[in-house]
């Protein structure tokens, strides 16, 4: 008996079956889809007793996938072997599993914890290294102190530079002043009798914290030693001085060494003609301007290795200043000073300022002007003219 070979219209699988199934319907062994076997139309339905009409095999369709079927000797379609199930391999990739949101959150939290711990311990390490470096710098500065004379020359140079309308001297000239003993001696402060000014006694008053405000009406002067804050750093005045610089009397509140303080407040007082220091009372509000408003300067060191930083204010600040009578080179007084800076610098309290004056010997060191007319006798007139280059 011949076989029929055809392809499934659903999955294009090659199928082989007996020719008795031509025109009949069966299922594809591959995709299990219904199909009509080619090879002729199905015969019309006939009575069962008609022996001339062939019937489909009773044992079911003999369908294979391009594999020949064997029959036993003398066996008919009913004795055909049953069809074999053909495994079909699914070549499509497996579906990707979705990651749980809990797992994502746990991973993100772990990464953030690791980064935070690293940043925290890194900050501690850097802070410790910076503290050690600052300590070494302070120790080196203390060991490399250039002496009182050198610091005094530097201080006078800074005061000259901060005076209103004063042109700072050149660095080379400043170095020559430090090298000249006569200029160094002239730069040292002395009292009215020409003796070195005595150091101010230690202030034993308590420290009452100053409160920053630019409202002069609510500003209060605490009954304690001068204290406050300068550029965000606590300030307690170790000494108060009045140093003459040019035409101004500079009232200084300093913390640290007198020749090179760590923090300092300077108030430039310009006295009127014939006016003496002592007995003045000033009330400066933040809206006042003009010649009657003293210039105020704050001076602080951001690093012991570097030069101090200066910032001056000619208006915008609030100040109450009361000076007592000048006695024994000392001026007592009270002050409240609030600066309009972002750090809210403030200085307030009671003080006794030591007053210093320039060395009177400094006038003798001044060069004398050349005479306009010679007073020498006629015998020495020619030598005088030759020396000063005078031609007649």
Brief write-up:
With 392 residues, the protein is an alpha+beta fold.
Characterize the structure shown:
- The chain is of the alpha+beta class.
- Helix content is 22%, strand content 23%.
- It contains five helices and 16 strands.
- The strands form three sheets. Strands 6, 7, 8, 9, 10, 11, 12, 13, 14, 15 and 16 form an eleven-stranded mixed beta sheet that branches.
- A hairpin with a 6-residue loop joins strand 14 and strand 15.
Helix content: 10-25%
The value of Rg in angstroms is: 54 Å
The number of E-state strands comes to 16
Number of helices: 5
What is the average per-residue confidence, as pLDDT, rounded to a whole number? 74
SSE order, one letter for each helix or strand: EEEEEHHHHEEEEEEEEEEEH
List keywords for this structure.
single chain; 392 residues; alpha+beta; eleven-stranded mixed sheet; three-stranded antiparallel sheet; 22% helix; rod-shaped
């Amino acid at each position: 008996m011949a076989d029929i070979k055809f392809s499934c219209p659903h999955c294009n699988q090659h199928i082989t079956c007996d020719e008795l199934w031509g025109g009949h319907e069966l299922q594809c062994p591959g995709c299990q889809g219904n199909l009509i076997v080619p090879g002729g139309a199905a015969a019309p339905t006939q009575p069962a007793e008609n022996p001339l009409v062939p019937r489909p095999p009773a044992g079911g369709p003999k369908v294979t996938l391009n594999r020949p079927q064997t029959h036993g000797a003398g066996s008919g379609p009913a004795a055909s072997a049953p069809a074999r199930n053909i495994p079909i391999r699914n070549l499509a990739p497996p579906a990707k599993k979705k990651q749980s949101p809990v797992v994502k959150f746990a991973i993100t939290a772990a990464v953030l914890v690791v980064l935070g711990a690293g940043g925290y311990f890194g900050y501690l390490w850097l802070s410790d290294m910076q503290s050690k470096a600052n300590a070494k710098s302070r120790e080196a500065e203390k060991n490399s102190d250039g002496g009182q004379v050198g610091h005094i020359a530097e201080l006078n140079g800074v005061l000259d530079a901060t005076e209103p309308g004063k042109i700072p001297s050149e660095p080379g000239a400043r170095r020559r002043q430090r090298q000249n003993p006569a200029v160094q001696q002239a730069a040292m402060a002395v009292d009215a009798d020409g003796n070195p000014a005595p150091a101010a006694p230690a202030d034993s008053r308590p420290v009452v914290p100053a409160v920053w405000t630019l409202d002069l009406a609510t500003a209060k002067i605490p009954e304690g030693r001068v204290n406050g804050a300068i550029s965000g750093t606590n300030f307690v005045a170790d000494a108060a001085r009045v140093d003459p610089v040019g035409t101004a009397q500079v009232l200084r509140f300093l913390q640290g060494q007198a020749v090179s303080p760590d923090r300092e407040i300077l108030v430039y007082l310009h006295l009127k003609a014939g006016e003496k220091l002592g007995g003045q009372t000033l009330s400066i509000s933040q809206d006042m301007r003009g010649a009657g408003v003293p210039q105020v300067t704050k001076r602080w060191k951001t690093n012991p290795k570097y030069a101090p930083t200066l910032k001056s204010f000619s208006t915008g600040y609030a100040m109450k200043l009361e000076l007592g009578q000048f006695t024994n080179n000392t001026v007592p007084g009270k002050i409240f000073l609030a600066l309009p800076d972002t750090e809210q610098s403030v200085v307030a309290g009671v003080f006794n300022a030591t007053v210093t004056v320039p060395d009177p010997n400094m006038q003798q060191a001044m060069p004398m002007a050349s005479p306009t007319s010679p007073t020498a006798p006629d015998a020495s007139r020619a030598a005088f003219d030759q020396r000063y280059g005078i031609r007649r």
